[in-house]
Specification:
Blueprint lengths: L2 E2 L41 H12 L1 E2 L2 E3 L4 H11 L1 E5 L4 H17 L10 H7 L3 E4 L7 H7 L2 H11 L4 E11 L26 E7 L11 E2 L19 E2 L7 E5 L4 E2 L10 E10 L8 H4 L2 H5 L3 H6 L5 E2 L5 E2 L13
Parallel strand pairs: 3-4
Antiparallel strand pairs: 1-2, 4-10, 5-6, 6-12, 7-10, 7-12, 8-9, 8-11, 13-14
């Protein structure tokens, strides 16, 4: 359930959070306060009253431990649209990822070149570095792709052997970066919006601490149930995905979110965005061009499949990505 911040409800759960998030209980001014009963005495100062109600209404992102039952993680994603799993990556693997990937961060330019519309410059971030082709750069990344819990995430929401890696992307938000426009990831495939099933599911791994100052992701909890492609979102409906390095934000492709602003002087927020997408849809990253055939031959079979170097064969459908109507894996021999 959604955790609610309040002086009297600290650490408790509201069993029907939607009743607190409807327009009837708006936190704009003091409208709607008369609709709630038995809430105790309020201060005379209306600003204090409004603050008390805002504290009650703003949902909090849940944190779970890596060792908890996966069913608890799925329940949190189903309820809120996202969850943070603390200490998802072991200290040794985190150190290896940093050692192998941070040199690429130092060399890479800020912003993205060649966008066909100015919107994409702003969306991707003029003070943000985005780096793909990680299998060419890091064996630790390959290890993370085979992580059992990460695999269970994809299997649970998209179906075993039914998805590809959408992108494995370093997202490095630099100082003075502005907020990213809020969006749903599934908008990459507009016809998927509004469907009951998931099209894409993502893990955002923190390689550095995520703080409110350095650009921790903004999430609108519960927005995976909101109608429409990209409905307006008020600040009081959002929380920030603050977490320690090694933790992971797991989230639905339906949840409204965006990179936060980086107001720090010299601190980079480095995250590893690793999303899955249904195998019959086009992925964001062109893996067959960012990963060489020579490198692909050395990868574990699971990673070869995630990158599309093995053909897609759906249980209840046809076969895709073939060569001479044989599995693409023949090129890996």
């Amino acid at each position: 359930m959604v955790s609610i911040r309040s002086p009297t409800l600290e650490g408790k759960k509201i069993h029907n959070p939607k009743q607190y998030l409807t327009p009837k209980y708006t936190t704009s001014g003091v409208a709607g306060l008369g609709h709630r009963q038995n809430c105790g005495s309020f201060p005379v100062d209306l600003r204090q009253r409004e603050k008390r109600w805002r504290d009650l209404l703003v949902p909090e992102l849940r944190h779970l431990n890596r060792n908890c039952a996966p069913s608890k993680i799925w329940a949190a994603i189903n309820d809120d649209g996202c969850v943070i799993v603390d200490d998802f990556i072991s200290p040794d693997l985190l150190e290896a990822l940093r050692r192998e990937l941070m040199p690429s961060v130092a060399r890479h330019r800020r912003g993205t070149a060649g966008a066909e519309h100015p919107f994409w410059d702003n969306f991707h971030g003029v003070e943000t570095k985005r780096i793909t082709g990680l299998c060419e750069k890091s064996s630790a990344w390959v290890t993370l792709l085979c992580d059992p819990l990460y695999t269970k995430l994809g299997d649970h929401y998209l179906g075993a052997n039914n998805y590809y890696l959408n992108t494995g992307q370093l997202i490095c938000i630099g100082p003075n970066e502005t907020p990213q426009p809020l969006h749903r990831d599934e908008l990459n495939w507009p016809s998927a919006v509004g469907e009951d099933h998931e099209t894409t599911i993502t893990a955002l791994f923190a390689l550095t601490d995520f703080t409110e100052e350095n650009g921790a992701t903004v999430v609108a909890l519960g927005s995976h149930r909101w109608p429409g492609h990209n409905p307006p979102t008020r600040p009081d409906q959002t929380d920030r995905a603050t977490m320690k390095a090694g933790s992971a934000l797991l989230y639905s492709g339906k949840i409204i979110h965006g990179g936060g602003p980086n107001s720090s002087k010299d601190e980079w927020r480095v995250g590893l965005h690793a999303g899955f997408v249904l195998g019959w849809l086009r992925s964001e990253e062109n893996h067959q061009l960012t990963t060489s055939l020579e490198t692909a031959r050395k990868l574990p079979e699971r990673v070869q499949s995630l990158l599309g170097f093995r053909s897609y064969s759906q249980k209840d459908g046809g076969r895709l990505g073939l060569i001479d109507y044989e599995d693409t894996a023949q090129l890996l021999k």
